[in-house]
Amino acid sequence: MVSIDLQRVRVPKAADVLAAMLREKILQGGIEVGTDLPNERELGAQAGLSRASVREALRILEGEGLIVTRVGRNGGSAVVRPSSETIERSVGIFIRGQGIRLEAVLEARAAMEPPSARFAAMHRSETDLLEIAKCQSALEQASTVGDVDAYVRANRDWHVQVVRASHNELLIAFIGAVAQSVYVATDLEGFNSVEVRNAVIRAHRRVMEAIAAGDADAASRRMGRHVGAYVSGVRKTQEKLNRNRPKEH
Fold it and tell me: In this structure, is residue 54 part of a structural domain?
């Protein structure tokens, strides 16, 4: 008898197959946004699947942000347009689930934020400028009273608002996720000192001036210096903390 080297055949679950079919129809426009899907019983009858498999497929699509499910007498599932929060949530889970190093997250941020500032200078509206200024005001007020938690939140919000002013949906989603991960991780001792906060405030003001003036080159350059200094500062702070950490015997 001849021995044949075969890989194990993996048969996809019925729920995954149904989710893939519905996903493709939704993304191709075959099922328009706002359309109510048939109920579980009808979907099961059409696909030849159990209600349990249909329910699992719908949960998959809901997790992907492609449908919303209502409960109660008027319950059911309806198609919705995927939002930037869907990508933010997925990227955030990936960063935390994979244990991505903070330095790698900051490097990704440093690569994306200068272009976002450039696009913000090119495409910002007066409303965008007001929202950025509002975040900056909250940041400066928090710094003045020494509320570090509020300062870190306002810092995150400022960066998110700048990228929103770019009106680039992908940058908004990716930087939103990265900014949240940085916010969670940068409560590093010594990195939010008065001196550092004042430097951040000055850097923000320079970026804001360039964006308001519509100077794309200056906005990109100043944001690059700002986030570059941020990466360097976090790296030095982590090295200092590691040196001061008691050694295990």
Answer: yes
If asked whether residues 89 and 75 sit together in one domain, one would say no
- Looking at the DSSP bridge assignments, the partners of residue 67 are 79
Going by the DSSP 8-state scheme, the letter that residue 5 receives in this structure is -
How far is Cα 213 from Cα 6, in angstroms, rounded to an integer? 64
Q: What one-character DSSP code corresponds to residue 246?
A: P
Asked if the structure places residue 5 within a domain, the reply is no
Report the pLDDT value the prediction gives residue 1, as an integer from 0 to 100: 62
Q: Give me the mean pLDDT over the 34-57 stretch.
A: 93
Tens of pLDDT, residues 185-196: 655 556 678 888
pTM beyond cutoff 0.90: no
pLDDT digits (tens, 9 = 90+) for 104-149: 888 888 899 999 999 999 999 999 999 999 999 999 999 999 998 8
The values of phi and psi at residue 79, to 5°, are: -75, 135
Q: Which residue range forms the structural domain that includes residue 34?
A: 14-79
116 and 23 assigned to the same domain: no
User: According to the model, what pLDDT value does residue 245 have?
Assistant: 66
Three-state secondary structure string covering 58-103 = HHHHHHCCCEEEECCCCCEEEECCCCHHHHHHHHHHHHHHCCCCHH
Do 213 and 240 fall within a single domain?
yes
113-126 in b/e burial notation, b at 16+ Cβ within 10 A?
bbbbbbbbbeebee
Residues 237 and 147 in one domain: yes
Cβ neighbourhood burial of 143 (10 Å; 0-12, 13-18, 19+):
buried
